[in-house]
Specification:
Number of domains: 3
CATH topology of the largest domain: Beta-galactosidase, Chain A, domain 5
Strand content: 25-35%
Strand order of the largest sheet: 8-9-10-11-20-17-16-13-14
Distance between the termini: 66 Å
Largest sheet: 9 strands, antiparallel
């Protein structure tokens, strides 16, 4: 009988089916209960809670992420903190979200948890520390630790970063990282990872402000350590709110290579000749070069970040002419409130981001003459902007939005809308409204995505997945717009930093790279040498040479069929491809046509000074033999000697080579 009961316990399974609707491409949260273990799975990921309110295991696309369960570790005046009683129960569930209640009990403190697991893998955790009825010890220290498998924690990203630098993204150093409080910290590898986040350090008692967050490598693991309490709590109860999110947050869209986005639409481009005296207009030229998505920056309306324009007839004509050429048009929306906005006097004090001293953030100046200050989406402006965008799309008929900084939860201390917090001495500190921005982005996605409208986010130094989750693609790199990459780009932006922040596959969101050209030292050609190695393209600005270069690359990749090919990047293709000299790196797309293997290789010379002849060899596992090799952009046939492809390359240049 006992064996039968054990079997029944092991197979006891609860599948939750509810009426709540989950947006594409996600799937409903699935709940399984086996004994005292709760398993929750979402697209591509699962979280296991084994008799504990903290995950004991996380899997990402079948890979184990944790080397040991997440844990609260601490010290009491009697020794190490020991949890004597623990548990977790399901409280509520539907397709969108499952809520858990949990507890840990010791002789010094009780830790109560409310845990929300959402359909995109976001896990919000509210922690309350309360005294036990008859404490036998006093709490001295309390840390949260997240031990990650070492091979799954080779890269890091945190936010805020610093303009002009890639210091906030890169390879995890051998001696780890020590950081002041950061609201976003991601650790992972090229295909996935784990985001930890918190809106503020309210309640934290940190002995060293520069050591609030640690990344601690050892022989088998890399541990994220959060210093909630480095000293005895000043009072109990005490509350903390934080979260985690396994990445990628969703599957990469199969057709993102075909979006062909170009930046720089303007009124009248459907009438203005591409060349003086030509019958071909600029819009015609864009269509001829294969542009499928145009972005109209801020000047589509005279009021920065607004949802109306006084040039409606011109806008409608441009939209119509774009659609006649099968081009989508995205309009600009941003992160600011303009002094030209009709609502300024009514709402400015209530909705703007404020510093702890009461100052405003931003102050961008543009024409017509106005100043634009950063607005907080934890305020009523969130609802106004959301309704404004939705109504504008319905009214004008454009095809989506380009969001400039809108996904970033800017630090804010404006108490009029609930941001900021007071310390024990009355000082005002900033908070980062992650949940408010996330709510805005989710509602925008739910309104636009079912209509086939695109959401493209421009941000710099920020890859916070709680809000990045609800965009179709992002555009990163403006932090290097001051010419920082001109002399030696990979010194300022190492390849590991690129893989951590600018590739997108680890987050499940396609990325494009932004380049402000400064010829001859820094051009699109230099950038393509490293972006293309990562399956990332440069977005062309305007309708000149940059677009013409990208158009040739778009066409070559489409003709080969990269969207239906297998991708083998330089850091994991050594079983197929060898390249010399050392500064040469190769990534490749592979497909089989009528039983014959073909490769489209991205071959890059990453030296900033030396011209080389790259020697690239595909072994028999990659292809039976190399018959031909051709630069698909220039058409040049390349020499093949003894199975080795010889590819002349100037410094910081790449070539697309078709191998049959």
């Amino acid at each position: 009988m006992r064996n039968l009961q054990s079997v029944m316990t092991l197979i006891f399974l609860t599948e939750v089916v509810a009426m709540a609707e989950v947006p594409e491409p996600w799937t409903p949260v699935k709940l399984q209960i086996v004994g005292n273990e709760v398993n929750l799975s979402v697209w591509g990921r699962s979280y296991r809670f084994q008799n504990s309110p903290l995950p004991s295991n996380i899997t990402i696309l079948g890979d184990e992420m944790l080397s040991a369960p997440m844990r609260l570790v601490g010290q009491t005046d009697a020794g190490a903190l020991t949890w004597t009683h623990n548990g977790v129960e399901v409280w509520k569930q539907n397709d969108e979200q499952v809520t858990l209640l949990g507890w840990l009990q010791s002789e010094a403190v009780i830790a109560n948890f409310v845990v929300w697991v959402e359909f995109d893998g976001l896990v919000r955790i509210d922690l309350r520390l309360v005294p036990p009825p008859d404490p036998k010890a006093k709490l001295q220290r309390l840390w949260l630790e997240i031990p990650l498998r070492k091979e799954q924690a080779t890269l890091f990203h945190y936010w805020p970063g610093r303009w002009g630098s890639a210091e906030n993204s890169g390879a995890v150093p051998e001696n780890g990282l020590t950081l002041p409080f950061k609201p976003i910290l991601w650790l992972g590898w090229e295909d996935g990872g784990l985001t930890w986040f918190a809106e503020s350090d309210k309640g934290w008692q940190v002995a060293d402000v520069n050591k609030a967050l640690e990344v601690v490598p050892d022989l088998d693991a890399v541990t994220i350590r959060l210093h909630f309490l480095d000293s005895p709590p000043k009072q109990l109860p005490l509350s903390f709110t934080f979260g985690i999110q396994a990445t990628p947050v969703k599957p990469m869209p199969k057709d993102f290579h075909e979006w062909r986005i170009c930046h720089g639409a303007f009124y009248g481009m459907e009438q203005q000749p591409a060349v003086t005296g030509s019958k071909e207009t600029i819009l015609d030229k864009a269509a001829r070069l294969g542009v499928k998505t145009l972005v109209f920056h801020e000047h589509w309306t005279p009021v920065q970040n607004y949802w109306q324009t006084n040039r409606e007839a011109e806008l409608r004509r441009l939209i119509t002419e774009c659609h006649n050429r099968k081009i989508k048009l995205l309009l600009y929306f941003g992160y600011e409130l303009s002094t030209l906005a009709p609502e300024w006097n009514e709402v400015a004090e209530k909705v703007l981001v404020k510093t702890p001293t009461g100052g405003l953030a931003g102050g961008y100046f543009r024409q017509p003459a106005q100043r634009d200050y950063i607005v907080c989406l934890n305020s009523e402006w969130s609802e106004r902007l959301l309704k404004g965008i939705i109504n504008a799309i319905d009214h004008y008929g454009f095809d989506g939005v380009y969001l400039d900084g809108t996904i970033e939860p800017f630090a804010c201390a404006n108490e009029q809308h609930g941001c900021g917090y007071r310390t024990a001495d009355g000082s005002l500190r900033v908070t980062y409204p992650i949940f408010a921005v996330r709510n805005f982005m989710r509602r925008l996605y739910e309104a636009l995505h079912p209509k086939g409208k695109l959401i493209n986010a421009h941000q710099s130094t920020y890859c916070g997945t709680p809000t990045l989750s609800f965009v179709h693609s992002y555009w990163d790199g403006e932090q290097f717009g001051g010419g920082e990459l001109a002399k030696d780009p990979l010194q300022k932006l190492p390849l590991a930093s690129f893989r951590a922040e600018f590739m997108g596959k680890n987050f499940g969101v396609p990325c494009e790279f932004l380049v402000y050209e400064r010829p001859p030292d820094w051009t699109i050609d230099h950038a393509l040498a490293f972006t293309m190695l990562h399956d990332v393209r440069v977005r062309p600005l305007g309708f000149g040479e940059m677009l013409e270069k990208m158009a040739a690359i778009w066409d070559a990749m489409t003709k080969f069929g990269v969207s239906e090919s297998e991708w083998y990047p330089y850091w994991r293709n050594s079983e197929f491809i060898q390249a010399q000299p050392e500064n040469v790196k190769v990534s490749g797309y592979r497909k089989i046509v009528n039983g014959q293997t073909q490769w489209l290789l991205v071959i890059s010379n990453l030296s900033v000074t030396e011209t080389v002849t790259a020697q690239v060899q595909l072994n028999v596992k990659a292809i039976k033999s190399v018959a031909t090799a051709q630069d698909v952009v220039t058409g040049e046939k390349l020499a093949v000697k003894g199975g080795v492809i010889l590819v002349p390359l100037h410094p910081m240049r790449m070539r697309l080579v078709l191998v049959k």
